[in-house]
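Sample intake — Polyketide cyclase
Collected from: Amycolatopsis alkalitolerans
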Amino acid sequence: MTTDTGSSKVVVAHRDIAAGAERIFELIADPSNQPRWDGNDNLAQAPAGQRVRGTGEVFTMTLTVGATRENRVVEFEEGRRIAWLPSEPGQEPPGHLWRWELEPVGDALTRVTHTYDWSRLTDEKRLVRARATTADKLQASLDRLAGLVES
């Protein structure tokens, strides 16, 4: 299920995935896995050994266009929630946030919510890309993530 209010600056998608929350969270909290399920086709690679374990941590990612991003973790609850603010290396985040929330529904079923919030985005150069990040793209990430853990 996707939620996108058109002009909203907060885009949300949900999916129930037939796997335990811990297994799903491992794929999300380890940046080196993220390019495998990125529905935006924006992530090229991330160095191994950056598994996130708490707020305040920073992990790096290389985009498909070759640029590097630092991602500052601003929300974290092991197995349940992680959110980060991307930025260019050494710069303050321009104000968009990626969030993942996992809610166990049973032993082998987890409701996963993926949110892209650009309500505080201040960098005019990023607005076109932010508007292009629709609920369908978030849903594609959820679908790819499900494909990895449900097989």
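Post-analysis note: The CA atoms of residues 19 and 144 lie 13 Å apart.
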